[in-house]
UniProtKB/TrEMBL annotation:
Keywords: Transferase. Transmembrane segments: none annotated. Coiled coil: none annotated. SUPFAM superfamilies: UDP-Glycosyltransferase/glycogen phosphorylase. Pfam families: Glyco_trans_1_4. This is Glycosyltransferase family 4 protein.
Amino acid sequence: MKRIAIVVQRWHDEVVGGSEALAWHYAELLAPHYAVEVLTSCARDYRTWANELPAGESQHDGITLRRFPTAWPRGPWFNDLHRRLLADYARRQPGAEGPLGWRPQLAEEFIRAQGPWCPGLYDWLDAEHERYACVLFCTYLYPTTHFSLSVVPPRKQVLIPTLHDEPPAYLPVYAAAARACGHRIWLTDAERRLGRRLWQVDEGDVVGMAVDTRIADARNPHARGETSYFLYCGRIDEAKGCGELIDAFLALRRERREPVQLWLTGSEGMPLPSHPDIRFLGFVDADSKSALMAGATAFVMPSALESFSIVTLEAMAQTAPVIVNARCDVLADHVTRSGGGITYSSRNGLVDAMRQALSLDTDARQAMGSSGRRYVLEHYDRTAVAQRLQAVVARACAQA
């Protein structure tokens, strides 16, 4: 059995993160056909990259994990560079598409400082890459991908960028690395279009990710009850648009007499207001999350920076209408192609979208939810995704 590796910046079964979930999902899909190893850091927290997990080899569900310690936590130097990056990005002309004018040395200093910086990972791949038929790199942003690419021959590289339209993506070093890769996997057509626009590269395969389509158990205590609620699942963070979501919900709540609540699950990366109609449920298991989605008036994804949005598609699979940020092409594509939800492009637009979701009668809600579920079943079935993924990996292994 050929040996392959998947590199990702962190992984733990309780980590809430899209690229981390994607890396493990691909590991599971490939494990029946290859000896899969996941190469990652000892960190759990992306804000500090502190070493919290033991270094070395371990097993999880029959898949080998190799963890490498971070050399330092994220510190003030990264914050300084990040502020400079945001300032340079903000000074660009409106609508400008070209790269930021950062020299490679400065850009790579930013990537190192961002973390996690794992020298042992690069040493391992430098010494061991000949023993891997191919290496998959999940998400473009972090040094675990960017610097590992330099020690693995391009013919063995499979880059999964999970590309967002965000300031770091305009650094020329990322575009150069993506163009030099032997193989690329895009999660959606919209992400590939973004790759063409930002990096002048769109070669590669649209593979996507399989979504759990099992209908939630109606006996689950989180299944639909008397209270109308909007649901958000994931990292609760300003960068995910959660501030705008909370502001919009509070505006809606002030104008409504009928009870409605906002429920949030996942990891709390920003303070939440103390309000009787805002409920933070923390980390919930998969069955409870599915039941929460099935019972929601609508699932809301306020992020403008998504390359796939697993949770949005999971909600659609549970026949929940979805409300998504149209400033994200990926999310807008999901809703436009499916008819399974509502898009908005401003804070006031989000309030209007929530009003619209609350006004749906039973038949309209069911029709919208069924359209979303059909879309997920047609495009993100586990067997179809596995076949697309295996075809890309097989081509990369054949060139090893």
